Amino acid sequence: MAVLELTNISKHFGAIQAVNDVSLSIEAGQVVGLMGDNGAGKSTLVKMIAGNFRPSHGTMHLDGLELILHRPVEARQHGIEIVHQDLALCNNLTSAANVFLGRELRHGFGPFRVLDYRRMYRRAGEIFRELKSETRPRDLVKQMSGGQRQAVAIARTMLSEAKIVLMDEPTASISVRQVTEVLHLIRQLRDRGIAVVLISHRMPDVFAVADRVIVMRRGRKVADKQIAASSPEEVTGLITGAIERV
């Protein structure tokens, strides 16, 4: 059974139809590449899944139950996590502090509860090891590479046993070596049974790691294919409109 299912989802902002009648399903442990030109509706679609926007029409189901979200915190409570393109990290804090930002562990009683740094460092270290990342809990984010920063952002999604991780352009503006690290992290999520939605303009990355590719153009879904049954040339044609629909 699909972990997430969207049925005839639409979103308009006044007269602007950002997403128009999109249906799709995603299974656990599946990586789905979401591609399209600027303004195709990718980010709006993902923001509806993440609880930033309410759909104008259509329904969403998570594990077979209808999902109605009013705020991003509700999506997180249901196991839907998002890694934004800017990562939303605090450069002056350690990687462990960033992983637990807003979800800090404390110990003590009543008004005397204080931050439990030891447990946070230990748990962050465990997650980095599970991800097979070289990131260390006490490292400052401002001293990290792009790949290590992605590891911190992804580690944050694993605190709450995520079912779905939405990733917005995770390999933009980083080196080739760091891209390899990030794709490895995505495979680690997949191998843990977590569904991943990967928004990307980088065709090689999508074809390297995704099981399926969904292409959007002008707010509509124009393709939903297994990666093995498609090609970069076909996806490019769908994005540009040279190929109408498959």
From TrEMBL:
CDD domains: ABC_Carb_Monos_I. Residues 4-243 form the ABC transporter domain. Keywords: ATP-binding, Nucleotide-binding. It comes from the Bacteria. GO terms for molecular function: ATP binding; ATP hydrolysis activity. InterPro entries: AAA+_ATPase (IPR003593), ABC_carbohydrate_import_ATPase (IPR050107), ABC_transporter-like_ATP-bd (IPR003439), ABC_transporter-like_CS (IPR017871), P-loop_NTPase (IPR027417). SUPFAM superfamilies: P-loop containing nucleoside triphosphate hydrolases (SSF52540). Belongs to the ABC transporter superfamily. This is Sugar ABC transporter ATP-binding protein. It comes from Microvirga brassicacearum.
